[in-house]
Design brief:
homodimer, 224 residues, Pnp Oxidase, Chain A, 21% helix, globular, Pyridox_Oxase-rel (chains A, B), Pyridoxamine 5'-phosphate oxidase family protein (chains A, B), Split_barrel_FMN-bd (chains A, B)
Chain lengths: 224, 224
């Protein structure tokens, strides 16, 4: 809710990805976009079935210019998406709250990415490669450590990917953007940061005695 | 990615809100649903324009049986939504990562809500009331403290609300759900919790000297 327009961003890839509201927060460079996607493991996938919009939160990961998500082979969402219906992929991180001197100018700090495209079903080979990348991205070494999927488990999994062609990011990390007359007032303004923080690992109570915590758990860092 | 089916949940309000995948995680009681909505300030709104799905992250708040969101009076999203197009409202909280003994059974802990409905534009009186509730929900006392909106600022704001009729929640807070043969193995399993944590308040560097930090900032607790 501000009117400043300081940094002219790079051009958007398409008209649909051009930010109309708060366009001065727009980022179109690949480095910023990839960093926002990689900083999280939960995305929101928008799609349409029978004219009804659906938004499904799910795990995502990125390999080069594609984002991937997975699910049950019986999932209605994935069955529709593998037909190539239009998809809107978003990732959002809440970074803080900005208190302004004026009620109209309170804000939040955030990083978000929005991408438009079409889902494509990964074949068996790509599915297996991609799921391995996903598991090792959660924690490096996790794939080699755990019991590998059975044929039946592989059959029960499906992976969809989407090319990152039409994509834009929006980043707000500032302080309150105030009207000049508000800056001159005797009111407090500032911000409070928010961050997703990890707790110490909790072993499964059903753990058999004498099993050491693996290094990938000891060294786990969310959002590397 | 489990097959257990232990707690039979309450019935969903409509067939569209009935969880098909992992249906044993479904919750349909109002208390659980409201708590998940109220635990966050960022939602994802799904809607369709010209057959294209859009997912827009935005601030939300709840008053009784309605969820509210706001934006610029010139916003294309809000202009479409005030026409009463179908909307999918979702809130998602990531609570942790679950490491299983089997690659197929790694999981995340989360709380999410999905609601289907139609946006409705709030009239001037309801808009002003609702925005005041929103600001005071961010921090109690914030509305009285900051400079009130001018007529021009009021005109620049629009508020949409949606009735919480068709709504379901999904909660996963467990430990790994393992196959019996995996439980008997010598592999480690457990979980790592994730939580959105607040940093100390940072005053605006442009603050005039001698301005005290208000109590609502000192006492600020994200996600009360």
């Amino acid at each position: 809710m501000t009117t400043a327009d300081t940094n002219k961003p790079a051009e958007p890839p398409t008209e649909r990805t051009r930010l109309k509201r708060y366009h001065w927060l727009a980022k179109y460079d690949q480095e910023t976009i990839n960093a926002i996607i990689d900083a999280g493991i939960v995305c929101q996938i928008g799609y349409v079935i029978d004219s009804q919009p659906y938004v499904t939160p799910t795990n995502h990961w990125r390999i080069d210019d594609y984002v991937y998500w997975h699910g049950s082979s019986a999932s209605r969402m994935l069955k529709e998406q593998q037909r190539g219906i239009p998809v809107c992929f978003t990732v959002t991180h809440l970074d803080g709250i900005v208190f302004s001197r004026a009620a109209f100018n309170h804000n939040i700090n955030f990083r978000s990415v929005m991408a438009f495209g079409h889902g494509e079903l990964c074949d068996e080979e790509l599915k297996r490669e991609a799921l391995q990348v996903f598991v090792d991205r959660l924690a490096p070494g996790l794939w080699d450590y755990a019991r590998k999927p059975t044929d039946q488990e592989w059959k029960a999994s499906k992976v969809i990917r989407m090319k990152l062609d039409e994509v834009s990011a929006k980043v707000s990390d500032g302080l309150p953007d105030e009207e000049p007359e508000d800056l001159a007032s005797n009111l407090w303004a500032g911000s409070i940061g928010l961050q997703l923080v990890q707790a110490p690992p909790v072993p499964d109570p059903k753990l058999r005695p004498g099993i050491d915590m693996p290094d990938f758990v000891k060294n786990f860092k969310y959002s590397r």
